[in-house]
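User: Fold this; tokens only.

Assistant: Input:
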Amino acid sequence: MSQKVKAVLVKRYTNERQFQRDARELAKHGYVVTDVATRQPRSGLMRIILLGFFALLFKPKSQILVTYRLIPPPEGAA
């Protein structure tokens, strides 16, 4: 049974090192980065209750949202 390859991948990373490592690995399989967005998640209610004032000082880690697109090899390439 053949494995279906996805033409578009969207991945979320919590640090730059994970993103760089994954981008290199996916590039070997023909994927290119088409979009990168960074977002700061909101503090959840439980985090605010447990940390109180410190929830304002220590925000959750930023997340990197990356979209990859598969580029097919040129005609005649093996």
